[in-house]
Structure formats: C-alpha cells, structure tokens
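We modelled the chain as a single entity of 76 amino acids. Its sequence is:
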Amino acid sequence: MAPYYIELSEKYPSLMFLTVDVDELTDFSTQLDVKATPTFFFFKDGQQTDKLVGANKPELLKKITAIVDSQPHQQP
C-alpha cells in the first residue's frame, strides 16, 4: 500500500500526506484509536473529517478525489 500512497501524494500535491510509525508513536496511535494498519485519517483545518481502515485502494482514491473536488479552484 505504501507505493500507492506515495503515488497519490505525488499526484495530489495540494494535499498533505503524512505517515506515522504506530510502533514508535504508541501514545499518538492510541489517542487516534488506531486498531489496524493501514488506517488513513483525513483532516481539514485541524479537525478530523473522515477515516478509512484497511488497504482499500479504490476507497482511498474516492475519498481523496472527493476532497480535491471540494477544494476551491485557484486561478493561476
């Protein structure tokens, strides 16, 4: 799943993609209630807006494209 995640991060540069090592940051993963990996969190303005658990490529792409489509289009 990691190569696909990297591919998405390159395809959608207007979004911020982060990875967290849940073994290294156990307090953080506990706070976000991570029970399985991969778990994808979606945030906007510091607030969690969505969550996806599991390596579901089509659903991850669907959620990302929905975010991109909801962003105001910027003029060059």
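As a brief sanity check on the tokenised model: The mean pLDDT is 93. The CA atoms of residues 2 and 24 lie 18 Å apart.
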